Amino acid sequence: MMASVSYAAEIRGTVYFNQPPRLVEAATTYNDVYVWGATYYFTISVPDNAVEPLQRITLNQREGVDNIRFDLKKTYAFEGTRSREGQKLGLSDVTSQRTERTVSMTFNPAIPPGKTITVAMKPVQNPTVPGVYLFGVTAFPAGEKAYGQFLGYGRLQFYSSGDSVFKWR
User: Fold this and answer.
1) pTM, two decimal places
2) CA 120, CA 77: separation in Å to the nearest integer?
3) What do you get for the CA distance between the two ends of the chain, in Å?
4) Long-range contacts (CB closer than 8 Å, 24 or more residues apart) made by 8-16
5) Burial 20-41 (b: 16+ CB within 10 A, else e)
6) Could you give the CA distance from residue 126 to residue 66 in angstroms, rounded to a whole number?
7) For residue 79, how far is the Cα from the chain centroid?
8) CA angle 20, 29, 112 (to 5 degrees)
9) What is the spatial distance between Cα 108 and Cα 105, in angstroms, rounded to a whole number?
10) Tens digit of pLDDT for each residue in 34-89?
11) How open is the CA angle 71-74-87, to the nearest 5 degrees?
12) What sign for the dihedral angle of Cα 120, 126, 131, 134?
């Protein structure tokens, strides 16, 4: 049996993931419009065979009428999933670019291969307009010059209390 060897991808000083993390889930505790006190969860898995640790992620709101604002001081991360919350992880440089509708955060220390982590974010308030809200998730490996790998969209849907599956005539 031959052992497999993985190498970090570094081209002209830029670090790339050899095996990118995977967006596992996006969920919210409350999916009604106007609600205060919700938490949005984004779960990411770093493959066992990855060479590079996960250093930073960005969440970019790509769809949705309202521009959702977050209370960045209440953002936290932990090992595991929202239903199996494990050890808290260090976060630094949690920042927002409102015009870009992007939130960025750095893990300190970086997340090693083989871990599943969840980021919990508190919106100031759920959107006032119902509908689908998409958040593009991009992951960056450790390194001074790191290439961001787009992982996909976290999809949250919000409803008004008048929305119903059944419409009566």
Assistant:
1) 0.88
2) 6
3) 68
4) 8/51, 8/52, 8/141, 10/143, 13/144, 13/145, 14/143, 14/145, 14/146, 14/147, 15/52, 15/141, 15/142, 15/143, 15/145, 15/146, 15/147, 16/52, 16/141, 16/147, 16/149
5) bbebbbbbbeeeebeeeebbbb
6) 9
7) 13
8) 25
9) 10
10) 999 999 999 999 999 998 999 999 999 999 999 999 999 999 999 999 999 999 99
11) 150
12) negative
Residue matched to tokens 């190498």: 7
Contact present, 6 and 19 (Cβ < 8 Å): yes
Residue 123 CA to residue 74 CA, distance in Å, equals: 9
Q: Which of 73, 68, 72, 82 is nearest to 34 (CA)?
A: 68
Confidence at 143, pLDDT banded by 50, 70, 90: confident
Q: Which of 28, 29, 61, 25 is nearest to 45 (CA)?
A: 25
Side chain identity at residue 129, one-letter code: V
